Amino acid sequence: MQFSKINWFKFAAPQRFYRLAGQIIPWCGALALVLTVIGLYVGLFLAPVDAQQGDSYRIIFIHVPSAWMSMVIYLAMAFWAAMGLIFNTRLGAMLATALAPSGALMTFIALWTGALWGKPTWGTWWVWDARLTSELVLLFLYIGFMSLHAAIDDPRRADRAAALLALIGAVNVPIIYFSVTWWNTLHQGASISFSKGATIATPMLLGMLVMALAFWAYAIAIALARLRVVILEREQHAQWARAELGTV
Amino acid sequence: MRGVFVRDLRLALRRRADTAAALFFFVIVASLFPLGVGPEPALLRTMAPGVVWVAALLASMLSLGRLFADDHQDGTLEQLLLSVCPLPLIVLAKMAAHWLCSGLALTLVAPLLALQFGLPSSSIGVLALSLLIGTPVLSLIGGIGAALTVGVRGAGVLLSLLVLPLCVPVLIFGAGAVDALAAGLSVGAHYSLLGAMLVLSLFAAPIAAAAALRIALE
User: Fold this and answer.
1) Do the chains contact at B215 and A161, CB–CB below 8 Å?
2) pLDDT tens-digit profile of B41-57?
3) Which long-range contacts (CB under 8 A, 24 or more apart) does A235-238 make?
4) Domain segments of chain B as ranges
5) Strands A192-193, A197-198: pairing kind
6) Would you call A178 an interface residue with chain B, using a CB distance cutoff of 8 Å?
């Protein structure tokens, strides 16, 4: 298989990717559902009671996966925005705009479940430590991205301006991730690291990882579904899109 | 590049009302806080660095709209895009002129506001120095936002929405420097981080703003 003979941009055509996305979505959605059931079973029934927090720690199975996804989706958004800028494709930018609302939702869920967890354990809904503050800034960055895209009328200019903004804001993601090691924070430090392995009980770790994969599959499914809508909106002048919408 | 810098300064000096308005906004916003939270001296002294910094941030946001808007309206911006001088350098010259008229003015007025809040003189010195290092960063990062929103409907509020999250670290370390002094800790770390942000944005912000201008004007 010769490298140069591969058409790397085959699926950069909105029409082709529309069909491919339509085939991927049911599988990812089903996977998300199955993994959620398994993950919640492991987390709520199999994982042991925590020595210090009792059962209230179990919100971790929503909180940590959504926090991880908020960062992963931002990086994916910035990546696809960069692809759209570099290769001047429409689809890259469309995918970035499709990812943004999911990322914002994940960030909001992480902040909200964190607050719900903090009240019984820390005694407060919110504290202005490094990790919470930088996660809040991430939510503002998502909202800024969506606002900038919505404010500019010309779609291509909106795509490119929002893409540049996403790239500039990407510097926040490492700050969130490393905030618990760089600063003295109330938020607990990393229990899972590449160098030291996991320091939490295996069933808890398993539940968290399964839920993380579930959220990942969900995010892919929902982003691709949103992307299909965006593609139809933007390509509505094209023959294939009008056939798809049933208005030829 | 020097030409653009001198031109922007000259234009700003001819329209002194714009600079003065931003300055008075700074003073008014900072004065609103004691009226809102009450005149208790200990509370005001604790609040002072944060309030002065937030007011400086908001006053900078207000004046940033002017950075490219006037040139965009009369077509000068398109001519600047075509010039031989690299666009990032031209943008840097404009940001520097903007800072001299807004950030520097705020830094010079800030000690008076700090006196209003009852800050001790050592703290006032730290506050002024933190503003001196921090306000250029605000002009630089704000310039990126101004370039992204050139000619956009509702650019004023959108600019603040985009730039304020990016300026959060500057606010944290700028106000934190004065708080550190009050707590008896070393201020050097805060200055170092502010300086690092200044150097990083001096390098990256003009390039990003130039890219944003090209996107905005095709």
Assistant:
1) yes
2) 889 999 999 999 999 99
3) A235/A14, A235/A15, A238/A15
4) 2-217
5) antiparallel
6) no
For residue range A6-32, list pLDDT tens digits in order: 888 888 899 999 999 999 999 999 999
Task: Tell me how far apart the alpha carbons of residues B27 and B110 are, in angstroms, rounded to a whole number.
Answer: 8
- Residue-wise pLDDT for A101-121, tens only, equals 999 999 999 999 999 988 888
Mean residue pLDDT of chain B comes to: 91
Give Cα separations from A116 to A1, A63, B155 (angstroms). Answer: 53, 10, 36
Residue-by-residue DSSP string for A161-218: HHHHHHHHHTTHHHHHHHHHHHS--SS---SEETTTEE-S-HHHHHHHHHHHHHHHHH
Q: Residue A1: its pLDDT value, please?
A: 62
Selected residues 80-139 of chain A with any CB under 8 Å from a CB in chain B: 133, 137
pTM metric for this prediction: 0.90
d(CA A172, CA A110): 16
Size of chain A, expressed as the number of residues it contains: 248
Q: Which residues of A touch B159 (CB under 8 A)?
A: none
ipTM score of the complex? 0.89
